[in-house]
Amino acid sequence: MSTESSEKTATTIESRFGVDDRQLERTLESALARKSDFADLYFELRESTHVGLEEGLVKRANVSISQGVGVRVLVDEKTGYAYSDEITPDALELAATSARTIADGSASDRSVAVRPGIATPDHNLYPVDAKGVSRPLPDRIHLLQEIDKEARKFDSRICNVMANLAIEEKQILVANSEGTHIADNQPLVRVNVSCVAEANGKRETGNAGAGGRFSIGFYLDEPEEAFRLAREAARQAIVNLEAEEAPAGEMKVVLGPGWPGVLLHEAVGHGLEGDFNRKKTSAFADRIGDKVASELCTVVDDGAMERRRGSLNIDDEGTPTGRTTLIEKGRLRGYLQDRLNARLMGVAPTGNGRRESFMHAPLPRMTNTFMLAGEDDPEEILRSVDSGIYAVSFGGGQVDITNGKFVFSAREAYRIEGGKVGAPLKGVTLIGNGPDALTRISRVGGDLALDEGIGVCGKDGQSVPVGVGLPTVRLDGMTVGGTRT
Amino acid sequence: MSGSKAALDTACAALDAARSAGATSADAIVVSQEAHAASVRLGEVESVELSRQKRLGLRCFHGQASAIASTADFSAEGLEAFVRETAAMARVLPEDPDAGLPDPALLEKAAPDLGLSDPEGFHIDGDRAIAIARDCEQAALGVDPRLRNSEGATCSASANTIAYASTGGFQGTYQTTNHSLSVSPIAEEDGSMQGDYWWDSVRIRRNLGDPETIGRIAAARTLRRLGARKLATTRAPVIFEAPVAGSLLGHLAGAICGGSLYRKLSFLQEKLGEVIASPLVQIEDDGRLPGGAASRPFDAEGLPTRSTTIIRDGRLESFLLDTYSGRKLDRPSTGSASRSIGDAPGASPTNFHLANGTTPAADLISGIPRGLLVTSLSGMGVNTITGDYSRGASGLWIEGGEIAYAVEEITIAGNLLDMFQSIDALGDDLRPRSGIAAPSLRISEMTIAGS
Q: How many beta-carbon pairs under 8 angstroms link A with B?
């Protein structure tokens, strides 16, 4: 399967742009014409389609086709980068010439030999059958209409439903001055449902979504998977209609399993990316071996999980992905690395060199970041809290990696009183300090879940798909940003 | 200018092909961009980036059904297939009774020159760009020995050509340039670090702030964060410094745009004509501000841009609409359509500025027994359908009308409608460098959550 798919990639990129092995070598040789350490080429072909329904009508049907090449030259800590959406011998030469302006002098030997023929990634985490990633437009519209019905059927207070199907088919090819010559096909699909509920002059929204690296056919063949999301979005909108003012101040917080793993992404994930630690601009710099979480916490980043949104067969520098232990039983164990930062820090790349597209140089980025399951019963964790909040669904978060302060915003949360889950609370921001927040984790449930596959992570203006995961955890003290004092 | 003609020719050729492929009407947008950026960190060059790209966005109608596609493949066969498939897609889509191009009588006839382009300034020598970034970072790090590290300084520029044509009879092009400089120093004291930044961004290079001044402002913003403490949970007056006041205005701008109104996603849904803010508040959306960051001579449907009064003396006077949301709400477009290449037009703000007040910005803290000056906000805790607001904050604590110490790891919370209504003083420090901008402002009371 994986062999077939990469042969298809090779054929597509070669036939479309006339880029053969010798052309790759010539471009890399040109990029290395001055004294430099490394050069690579990243080719990308991407077709994205969206269909969106709202008010029961198709409001959005788009196709976007993008293609291009990025040429990178590395010298010590310097990066020269140039890209073009034209892929011709002249454009490649111009990009190589531009990227090498970062370097000085002239190189003595700059001959490059790429691996003859395109390599196949060792694992294929996202095989797609002969029917392909997409399905006919009328079938996709029909599914959206059914989702709309399902959400409205849930409760008569649902007054609008917005449902979207997104499909991306991306083919990448990486060639570098060390001979790497590898390609990958990366499917990515997503279903999003958003509902508006209205009652007694109040309006609220609820959201649900899911997806991953597989065919959109999954949802067409198993529509119940999509209907579940429709009901979930409707249920959340209805719950939020009843939400009360949230409390303000430091209190015990129980996070539910799955998407609340965004806690890890913000509290520790970004701060453990190699670039910030090489430059010592992260609150976690030089802290390998230190205690940064309670002993109950083991946190990993794993880019090699089947079908996951955050997964990749190879990263955007051609390095195979894998599992990196970031925190083991509370102690800081490792950082996430791309090639540049791994080389400068004298460690191995971890398969975390990612980029939004050919328009960007790669950076160390997360893939699927989660905490391993503990031994506590989730119900018992809730019962153990006298007074606090229970947050089960979140919007986005943000972190200042330098001072370590991070936030993440709950979209569905409840009061806990006397060990019981009580009234729903209005959306609320939680704030904490990365190197300290996980030390306050006193209970870890056995119910590890990953999110459903809709995460997007932004860094330096680049967005990439990611996953997060968490078992139910109890945090003994976190600032909750409500209005009620 | 030849770039403009080529871009317009590409757009017109796509429209001709679309008609041949059976589209009943269509519009096309072509954007080409060249850009360069040089970054310096701790005095050394860290990266140099150069790019060029060109994209075509095509919207084909079949009656009142529309499909949109975008591509960067300009080969003859690639383009032919692209147009054919887009027109074919429109044919299989259901109709939307409100979809369609604007009334041709309303199209812009003579687009003005708004001073948005400085092509000579764009072609700055690479070494010169590096020197500017280096001077800026050096000026920042030279201010105080506690400034020991840096995320670097970046000097960048882009030059864009935008062409838009529609089968309704519109053809127009314009060019823009952007010149930017930013720096992010890091200060360290007693084992803890704080970072902050400052920047400038202009259309015409000679208007760019001088690197030393930008560096010194960034240094001062960074140093004042040192020694930050957490606060006890309380209620107090909150002053938003101009750069973060702009974000408040952004939430309001989103809530008065057609897309969130017809979807019933706005906390200002039924508020047109009502007093929604303090009488101090005057907001104008000016699409034709000379040299403005968000100025454009015509909108993304070919309608003339203009200046629209949004709020006068606290009263909401107008929404911002494109043709589609206007039809949904039974109102005319305000010439506010914008679009990304691969998406349908939608209403968005242009130069959306809250006018200066009369209080000198530095005096906003005077006379406050205890309060918070917010200098930075984080997170996405804003619910635009209810106006509920809860965000992470850091800044300076005020006691007896003076700055007492830095604070962090706190949140501020309230409701946007209450917040706009309880603005009790407006500063005089509007910096109209961004599309959405406001002077510093004071809100009489909010909840501050801490320890």
A: 245
CB-closest option in A66, A78, A406 to B72: A66
Look up residue B141 and give its two tokens: 């790090």
What is this structure's pTM?
0.95
CA distance B161 to B181: 22
Structure tokens at B442: 């004071």
Residue for token digits 């790209």?
Answer: B53
Contact status, residue B206 vs residue B121, Cβ threshold 8 Å = yes
Q: Return mean pLDDT, chain B.
A: 96
Q: B376: domain range? A: 228-451
Structure tokens, B42? 């701790």
User: Taking CB atoms and an 8 Å cutoff, what residues of chain B touch A400?
Assistant: 195, 378
Tell which of B128, B130, B192, B193 to mutate to test the A interface (max A CBs under 10 Å): B193
Task: Indicate whether B342 and B413 sit together in one domain.
Answer: yes
Residues 11-70 (A) with a CB less than 8 A from some CB of B? 48, 54, 57-68
- In CATH, what number is assigned to the domain containing residue B51? 3.30.2290.10
Residues with Cβ within 8 Å of residue A134, at least 6 apart in sequence = A49, A167, A169, A215, A216
Q: Quick one: what percent of chain B has pLDDT higher than 70?
A: 100
Residues of A in contact with B50 (CB under 8 A): 81-82, 95, 98-99
Alpha helices in A247-371 (DSSP H): 262-264, 274-278, 339-345
**pLDDT for position B2:** 61
Spatial separation of the C-alpha atoms in residues A80 and A68, rounded to whole Å: 17
Q: What is the pLDDT of residues A263-282, one digit of tens each?
A: 999 999 999 999 999 999 99
B410 and A431 within 8 Å at the Cβ level: the answer is yes
Residues A121, A6 contacting (CB under 8 angstroms): yes
Q: Could you tell me the strand order of the sheet in which B351-354 lies?
A: B315-316, B307-312, B283-286, B351-354, B436-437
- Residue B5 touches partner A, C-beta closer than 8 Å: no
* Domains along the sequence of chain A with CATH: 2-241 (3.30.2290.10), 248-481 (no CATH)
Read off the pLDDT of residues B209-251 as tens digits, 9 standing for 90 and up: 999 999 999 999 999 999 999 999 999 999 999 999 999 999 9
